[in-house]
Design a protein that fits this description.
Length: 524
């Protein structure tokens, strides 16, 4: 895509007044405020956009705040697939309970249950497609055998599932027999044929948002989620090359458990998955793009911030970051740092977290009456205050995976910022009473603090230069094991929440693997 230099405004001054300077923390609010103009506000210069449209890709994995909802919105206005029809199945909680009611009666053996539930998902997918495309062909309209009710799509799905449940109650057939009968119906077969004819001219993208109830101990919903992924793999294999694409967004908080414990034959069902792991330069450009839109609309954009080459990170740094944030500052320990790495290292590399922190900085500047210029002292103070909120959200996102997680991590309180891994076993003992019966072990505790991204493993420590490079699990596709002999680091985002001892003249940088690490700079 060509560089977006002086692009059309995504918002006017009146709309900008309703916005925070760096955007809202949730995509839904932005879409509601901007409506059709959201496509101009969306930042196109990330690798996820093109990768997610690859016909081989059906599974997109990301933690809370990583941009899953924004990517689902992108399917509606993307240009790579010409004249595509995008169908967004969001808020699945609206039909989650009914899906659970249907699947609960299925045998609890996952080897039998998951393929059966996958058939239900196939039924849901085709019902959704028929309902959304009914105006394009009378054969598709005739395939809406459970009605074509207006209103929200999730409401329709709930209605279709109720109709399926009623049919099961009225016959002596089991679930598979009934679903086979539905798909053998001549109206359904003709509707599928008509849909494939349409998809040759106009590709169809069906995006499924994540089920919100992802408690790993809820066997029924875990099997339902695993079945959705299995169904997606089979549906993608059968129809992606014919123009019907399914995209499933999975919560990274629970995905490792699904992959290791629930999904049947992971090598078959999980392939070409995309992990929403953001790079520093992409986050810097994203946040700068949002700020550019706001300042442009408010007519406060500095002259040097015009004609930005959004494909060149250095151009964005020079024209959209440094003029407002400055190049460097001294942190709370008096150490010199470049401003962007300082802000970014207090996040887990997720857009929402960066947006929250930058908006906190902007609020401090407004109070000081220096906006849109941000003073070093305000940046440091705002991050100290804002990091508590984003740390709480991370803990909350794991509350269904680890009951009483907020109580368990209290055992880390008062840790030094860098420590030997054997200290975790000492702290683990303090949490034994907070775990469900039979689940406590020192290993489980280490796994928990690693999964949450609270504790990472130091890869390189340079005390002379004053920095430590550390690996954290949220930037990896799998687990990060923490061994007793490892030199460990607490993530800077948790310093305040856990009252961490910042007792060394060292800055912890949790993004050592990226090629743009040196470009952005560690310090002076």
């Amino acid at each position: 895509m060509a560089p977006q230099t002086d692009p059309p405004l995504a918002m006017n001054r009146q709309t900008a007044k309703l916005f925070s300077p760096f955007g809202e923390a949730d995509c839904e609010s932005e879409v509601k405020l901007l409506k059709q103009e959201y496509s101009r506000y969306f930042f196109y210069h990330t690798r996820f956009n093109n990768i997610a449209l690859d016909p081989n890709v059906f599974l997109i994995v990301g933690r809370r705040g990583a941009g899953k909802t924004a990517l689902a919105q992108f399917f509606m206005f993307q240009k790579q697939m010409q004249n595509a029809i995008a169908i967004d199945v969001d808020e699945p909680v609206a039909f989650e309970k009914l899906l659970e009611d249907i699947t609960f009666s299925v045998t609890r053996s996952r080897e039998v249950a998951i393929p059966r539930i996958a058939k239900i998902w196939q039924f849901i997918i085709w019902s959704v497609i028929f309902r959304e495309l009914q105006e394009y062909d009378p054969r598709i309209r005739a395939a809406c055998i459970f009605g074509n009710r207006d209103g929200k799509l999730t409401t329709f799905i709930r209605h279709a599932l109720k109709a399926l449940l009623n049919r099961l109650l009225q016959t002596e057939d089991d679930l598979l027999d009934e679903l086979e009968a539905i798909f053998a119906d001549a109206r359904i077969r003709l509707g599928m044929e008509a849909t494939l004819e349409l998809a040759r001219r106009r590709p169809v993208i069906v995006a499924f948002d994540t089920l919100e109830n992802y408690a790993v101990r809820d066997t029924t919903m875990m099997q339902a989620t695993a079945a959705l992924i299995q169904c997606g793999a089979e549906f993608n294999r059968d129809y992606a090359r014919q123009g019907i694409h399914i995209k499933i967004f999975a919560m990274a908080e629970v995905f490792p458990f699904l992959k290791q414990e629930v999904i049947l034959n992971p090598l078959k069902s999980i392939r070409h998955e995309v992990y929403l792991h953001w790079r520093p330069k992409d986050l810097m450009r994203l946040i700068s793009w949002r700020f550019y839109n706001y300042l442009h609309a408010m007519e406060t954009l500095l002259p040097e911030s015009r004609h930005v080459d959004w494909d060149q990170p250095q151009s964005v740094l020079e024209k959209m970051w440094y003029p407002y944030f400055g190049r460097s500052l001294r942190n709370a320990q008096g150490l010199a740092e470049r401003t962007f790495p300082f802000v970014l290292r207090h996040t887990q590399m997720r857009p929402r977290q960066l947006i929250v922190l930058c908006n906190a900085i902007a609020a401090a500047a407004v109070e000081r009456k220096s906006f849109p210029h941000f003073q070093p002292a305000d940046i440091v103070k705002a991050l100290q205050q804002g990091q508590y909120a984003i740390a709480d959200e991370v803990v909350n996102s794991y509350s269904s995976v680890y009951p009483r997680v907020s109580r368990i991590i209290e055992a880390l309180s008062g840790l030094p910022m860098l420590f030997k891994g054997n200290e975790l076993d000492k702290r683990a003992k303090l949490t034994a009473s907070e775990w469900p019966p039979g689940e406590y072990s020192p290993y489980s505790f280490r796994q928990l603090v690693s999964e949450l991204g609270i504790i990472g493993r130091v890869r390189h420590l340079n005390t002379e230069a004053g920095y430590a490079e550390a690996d954290f699990e949220y930037s990896m596709n799998g687990h990060l094991p923490l061994q007793v002999g490892d030199l460990c680091a607490v993530h800077p985002m948790f310093y305040r929440k856990l009252n961490i001892q910042v007792n060394q003249s060292v800055r912890v940088y949790p993004f050592p693997d990226h090629e743009d690490f040196e470009v952005l700079g560690r310090g002076e």
